[in-house]
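2 proteins. here.
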Amino acid sequence: MVEEIVSGICATLIAIILHELAHGLVARALGDPTAQNAGRLTLNPLKHIDNFGTVFLPLFLAVSQIATIGRIDFMFGWAKPVPVNPMALEINGQHNPRRLMALVAVAGPVMNFVLAFLGALALHGGVLVDFLTYFILINLVLGLFNLLPMPPMDGGRIAVGLLPLPAARVLAKTERFGILLVLLVLFILPSALRQVGVHFDPFHDGLNAILPAAMNVVLHLAGVKNGA
């Protein structure tokens, strides 16, 4: 039990910290030194910890799942967001804050998908298989979850960068309460409705449909046969 909890939490920490680091590195490559000046372009986990998203939530999810179903089926969390100044972003002297913020946003999910692939490659070594399996799944979940098209999720910021300006402005205005809406619809409401016998769980239903296919793709690309 303790080993599973530690494996799940360690894998989550790596996934969410490198996710945020990817945002900062791409922003720096596009000319914005904000994250660097804040000391966030580092692998030091203490610089990225969010008390709730990095510590409490992963621990709660790990312990509650081990206690109820005897295994960890789902793990989630987040690190402290890396600060980015959209007005400082540029390519070849050209400033387009909306489009370039989309590039910064996509870096996080891309990092998680790359980490999932690297985890699958590491399976060839035949060691730490349980940890690597958690690591692959957690990175896939985090990458897919962050592609939800609602700010402040990365998918929402990507959508703001790609949509026509009027629609982008409307979507951008939802960022101040977006995370509350995401937590309400995807986590709190399903739990409340479950108590009265009503099934409403779009996130887990969608994840159950997409995640096995995503896992198979990653394992196939890494040349792993039969999940081993």
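next one coming up
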Amino acid sequence: MRKDEHKLFYNVDRWTVFIYVLLVFMGWLNIYAAVYNEEHSNIFDMSQKYGKQLLWIGGGAFLAILILIIDSGFYTVFAYVFYGIFVVACIAVPYLGREVKGSRSWFRFGDFGIQPAEFMKFATNLALAKFLSNVNLKVESVKSNLSSLIKNYKNTVIAGIIIIAPLIIIKLLQDETGLAIVFVAFVAVLYREGLSVNFILIGFLAITLMVLALLIEDYYLYTVIGIIALLSFVFIKRNRKSIIIVALCVSAAVSMVAGASYVYDKMEPHQKTRIDVLLGRGEVNMKKEGYNVNQAKIAIGSGGFWGKGYLKGTQTKYDFVPEQDTDIIFCTVGEEWGFVGTSIVISLLIALMLRVIFMAERQRSPFSRIYGYGVAAILFFHLAINIGMTIGLAPVIGIPLPFFSYGGSSLWSFTILLFIFIKLDANRLQILR
């Protein structure tokens, strides 16, 4: 053992830590700008959100150091324990927590609140990495032995359950659509570990078909599906296997079209409105359902190339943009820092994601590699959806921008998620001994 191996930051990837610190600092500056008031300009004013965020940042720094102190084997051994604890917490919070903005998904401690669903992300990542590293999931690699193939698909189903269970619990019990849908990002991890690209293609086609079902009358789609089915029978070999495959595809396509229409009809009015705004269905009232996205676009566009200057944003200063310090904080970046500032922020987040992927590929342990790809998938999903919903390319579903949006649960969950991987990476060379 080398003499410096006992040091806290031994072999820690300093570039990743540097990007993390820079993003957290920039996020705090934007929270300060988003809620800035000349009457409460003291940055240490704990009655204001930027003051509270400083406490969360301090707590995040403590968690990061604690994670680096603990042996990396701890996260492997207790992966399922973490998963079980936060599943129970997510089930319990609707009954024991307090209601915030119409959703009972928070445990409150005085002025501070903890949202278990946020921490469910790192727990799910640990459990998924533990399971996949144990079974060595490779769907495409086993084709000759039927029993092995069945077992492999069984493992795929179990991995899917690990991902979907939190999604269902959070959506049904807490009605947190944004937090629930994030878990879909873990499908990318399955793909990296051997899941056939056909599943990704099928998923993309299914989503496309369901979107078309909301834009086009159902009978038009049924007609197109019928024509494609007839052409398939004309140009393919008409044997039993081909007929069964075509019949299953047609049945699935019809079910998706009918299912999309049925689910839409059963949605709450505000949920229908968000989908209508995204898809451009009908007239959108910019003073009601289209207000949030429209004001966010105005704020970002008004920043121009260089921005209006720090603390000089008018759209955010006069509270024209709802949730400008949380879910739609990117509009504050756009208004005050302009195109240059938004490009820097996006570049830093992408750099962090790419750095994590690079680190994941150099791991000797399957557990560490899988966990690393889970971190990258979560970061990408949050980045894409948050910015997408700010500029009108995705529905407004309440997904925070990593390290920027106000909130202790979000900051701590991303900190834990990232620093567990940093610790796993720091100890990767021990596996060779």
